[in-house]
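Reviewer comment 2.1 asked that we show a complete input and output for one of the modelled complexes. We chose the beta-D-glucopyranose case, as it is the one discussed in the main text.
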Amino acid sequence: MSIQTPPRAFSIGDLRIGAASAPTQIEGGDVASNWRDFADRPGTIKDGTSPRWATGHWERWSEDTALLGELGLQIYRLGIDWARLEPRPGVFDEDALGHYRQEITAIRALGVEPLVTLHHFANPSWFEALGAWEEEGSVELWLRFVRFAVGSLADLVTQWCTVNEPNVYAGGGYVFGQFPPGRSGAWPALRRVMRHLAIAHCRAYQLIHDLQPGAQVGFAHHLRDFAPLNPRNPAHRALARANRYIFQDALSDAMLGGRFPTILGGQPREVTPGPHYDYLGINYYSRTAVSKLADGRFPEVPVSDLDWEIWPNGLVSVARDLHEKYPGPIWVTENGTCDTSDSFRARFLHDHLGAMVGSGLPFERYYHWCLVDNWEWAEGQTAPFGLVHLNWETHERTIKDSGRFLAGVIAARGVTQELYDTFVAGQTYQVR
Ligand code: BGC
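Response of the prediction step:
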């Protein structure tokens, strides 16, 4: 199946557009987190870099905030770093809190609405030493932080994203060994980690509403469009269904519907079945072609510089499936691509936005991943996803053409023929 090309020019209607980021990937500084410790272990990060440097955002936050204004973004998803805010168990850093308050105040002063993530792959080192999310007690420890963070920011923030991609976090850390703690094939641990993160979300949903009745709360679910490599092969078809269930659908049931299937250890006492979301947060990047219990891709398809298939239709199909079971407004909490020379990102944006607005689904928001090129976890500094280029030596930021394109789309409330001709027409995807 080929990409269904949207019309060249189209209106985006009421869709609100912005960008997303995560603290560990941008801030820098010697923060005692699982990722700092992991990166200190030789051989873990492709280029040997560390979140100690990242993009220098902790110092340059006002420059990055100004970029939001320059691009005319309407919304911005940022995270606050648990490890930075709670450097020792139960001890909160008021200076770090003040820093975040200042940044969020500046974001709001530009008319940009903040959505704040409470867990994005990073844990304090002390929490990791206690066994992190494998342990049942992890949930209470994290909720103590949530209570502090939400209580301290409630006058500035009403939109919360509890947990980012529990499936990617758990898979990366316990099955594929690319994330801390770097374990491989630890399936029982994977199951416990997913269960505890799912309970954590459900309890945080409740807690945040208790603290702030008008809050909008959800989580960022990484959804992939799973397809059998060979659709005529019944084993591929069965495995595609199994992968999809293990990777995403079981978690949707637990975290959106509050119903914990057996694979996630059954119903916890502390969660009552029923909706646990105010929006459907979807992080969408690519499709998986399944022939075994692992990631694969179709041959001869458009790909990013990380070799991920570019498959805009998939964003609509995962959203449609989720929305059918769990109706509600859809917020694309992440979508983006690794494009080192910015030679196809405008087309990528055009095709994904076009697929969304032509779908008839209630897509309310689109947060592009990401604002400024950032520290890409195990890929280190080698995978630029930004609308803004980062010079890794000087930390100088320069808006890319794709950033200008997105700014134009927001200003014109759609892709005009002129925007298409200027930014998209000359771009093609690499096919591999
Ligand atoms: C994560 C981001 C990451 C992006 C691109 C998502 O899985 O939430 O932190 O940078 O993918 O790899």
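DSSP finds 14 helices and 14 strands in the chain. We note this here for comparison with the apo prediction described in Section 3.2.
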